[in-house]
Amino acid sequence: MTDFLIVGGGSAGCVLANRLSATGAEVRLVESGRDTPPGAVPADVEDLYPRSYYNSAYMWRGLQADQGGDGSGVKSDFLQGRVMGGGSSVMGMMAVRGLPGDYDRWNVRGWAWDDVLPYFRRLESDRDFGGPLHGADGPVAIRRHRVEEWPPFCRAVGAAAERRGWALVDDMNGSFEDGYCRIPISGTLAGRVSSASAYLDAHTRARPNLTIEARTTVERLLFEGDRCVGVTVVTRDGRREARHAQHVVLSAGAIHSPVLLQRSGVGPAALLKRLGVTPLLAREGVGANLQNHPIAYLATHLTERARQSPLLRPQFNAGLRWSSALDGGSDGDMMTLVINKSSWHGLGEAVASVGTCLVAPHSRGSVAATSAHHDGAAPDVRFRMLTDPRDMERMVAGLQLAVELMGDEAVRGLRHELFAAGFSRVVRRLNQPGLANLLVTRAIAGLLDGPDQLRRLMITYGIAERDVDEQRMRTREWAAATVRRRTFGTYHPAGTCRMGAASDDGAVVDPRCAVHGLQGLSVVDASIMPAVPRGNTNIPAIMVAERAAELLAAG
C-alpha cells in the first residue's frame, strides 16, 4: 500500500513528493491538471515573463470570488493554477519570504522565525547573497536584477522614492527595513524555476517508489472510523476509482483543501448539513480565516524611451516596502510594486503601473463548498477585502503615495496620462495568448504612440473611463473612491485550515500539520498559515512543505 498519497502537485505538493520519496517511502502524487515533465515544459510556463498567467488552460475553470473593495459581493474570475507546480508555474515568480515577525506572530510552537529559517535556507540557491540568512545549494534558484539593469520607469520611481527618504534595500529577504527593493525572483538566467521543475526533476521522477498521476481529480477523502485511508478520484478518462494510502496529505491550496475536507464530512456543522454530507467531524475553522493581499494599480502610457528592453524578461524588478504608520499598521505592512511592462503583448509594453498592495490585511473571508461532488458548482469564495476599515485607510494612503510618485520630476518626463487600472473582462480577453490578440494589441499600441490628441482621446474615453484628471487624483476623495472601485485580490489565498491548538475550534491542524481529531490525514499548503506573510506566498508555501516533510517522515 502507498505510504503517502499527496493531493495536489502545487508549490507544496511537489516538495513533499520529492522529500518523502527520498526517504524510501512509497509516494503517490495526484494532480488535477497537466504534467510538465523535464523536456516537455511549455514555453509560456518556462518564460521569465509570466506568459502562462494569461493562459486559461492552466487554471481552474469557473472559479470566482468577491475580490472588490466596494463591499458589493459581486464576483469575478479568480485565477488558481491547475497544472503541475500550481501557482509557481503560472504566477509572477516573486520570491519574497515576508518578515521575521510574520512567523513569530503565528504563535505556533515550532513555526517561529528561528524555526523556519533553516527551511528557507534549505529550499534556495541564492545567486546574489550568502551568509547565515541564505542557502547556496537548494533546488530553487533565486536572483535579482541590478539597479543598473532596471528599465527606465523602474529607475525613475526608485529615484522618486529616494527623494522621499527611502534607501535602496539590496536583499529584501535578509534586510527587513523599509526601502526601495530589488525584487528577488525564482528563476535562472534562462527561465522560471517552479516547484515542479525544482523538485520533480528527471532524477526524482525516476525513483521507483514515486508515482505521479496527472489529470486526475480527487473527489473526496475515504475514512474508516476516524482514520483517513485514501481518496476517490476521477481519472483522465472519467472513471471513478479509489486510491488507498497509510497517510493522505492535502496540498490542494487554500481554496481547494478546505473544500475537499468539507465534501468529505469535515467542517462547519451547518455547512455539512446544507451540502447533504454525512458529518464525520464538526470543525468550524475549515474554510474560515481566508486572507489575501488586496492591490490597486495606477497606470500610465510610457514614452518609447521609458519602455522595458526585450532583453530583460521579468515583469517584476523593483518595489517599495514601507510602513503605513496608520491604525492597524505594522512594520512593512505596505508594498508598492513597480511594473515597467504590464502584459506580454505590444500594448503591455507601452503601459506601466504602480501597484499599491496591502501585505498585512486584517479583513477575513471564507471558502465553502457548494456541492458534495467535484463536478458540481464552484466553491463559494468570499475574501471580504477591505471590510476592516483599517485596511481601507491603508490602501487609500498607498494609492495617494502612488499618485505622488507618479508626479515626481524623475517620472513625469517618461509618461503621459495617468489612469486607474483594473483587470476588466476586456483586458482579460486581450491578455489571452494568440495571434489575434497579438495583432489587435499591436494596433492599439501603434495608435497610442500616434498624435497626442488621439492618445488622449483613446485613454480618456476608451481606457480610463474619463478618469484622467491628475489634479483630482491628488485628493483623498478620489483615492478612496478608486480603492473601492478598483481594488482586487492578488493570488495569495491563505489561512483556511490554520494551525493551532486542538482546544481552538478555529484551528484545523496541529503544529505537525495533522488534522485535529482525525488520524492519517494532514494538510500542507498555504491554508495552514494562521496569517498571510508580508510577502508572496510561493516561497513560504515551499518552506512549509520542507518543514512538514521532515515532520511527516519522522512519524
Descriptive notes:
This protein is an alpha/beta fold. It has two domains: 2-66 and 78-95 and 192-290 and 494-554, FAD/NAD(P)-binding domain, CATH 3.50.50; 145-186 and 291-489, 2-Layer Sandwich (Cholesterol Oxidase, domain 2). The protein contains 18 helices and 24 strands. The relative contact order is 0.18.
Q: What's the CATH H-level homologous superfamily of the largest domain?
A: FAD/NAD(P)-binding domain
**What is the architecture of the largest domain at the second tier of CATH?**
3-Layer(bba) Sandwich
Helical residues, percent: 25-40%
Q: Mind telling me the CATH class of the largest domain?
A: Alpha Beta
Shape: globular
CATH topology group of the largest domain: FAD/NAD(P)-binding domain
Largest sheet: 8 strands, mixed
Query: Hey, roughly how much beta strand do the residues contain?
Result: 15-25%
Mean pLDDT across every amino acid position: 95
Oligomer: single chain
Number of DSSP strand runs: 24
Helical run tally: 18
Alpha-beta content class: alpha/beta
What is the count of distinct domains?
2
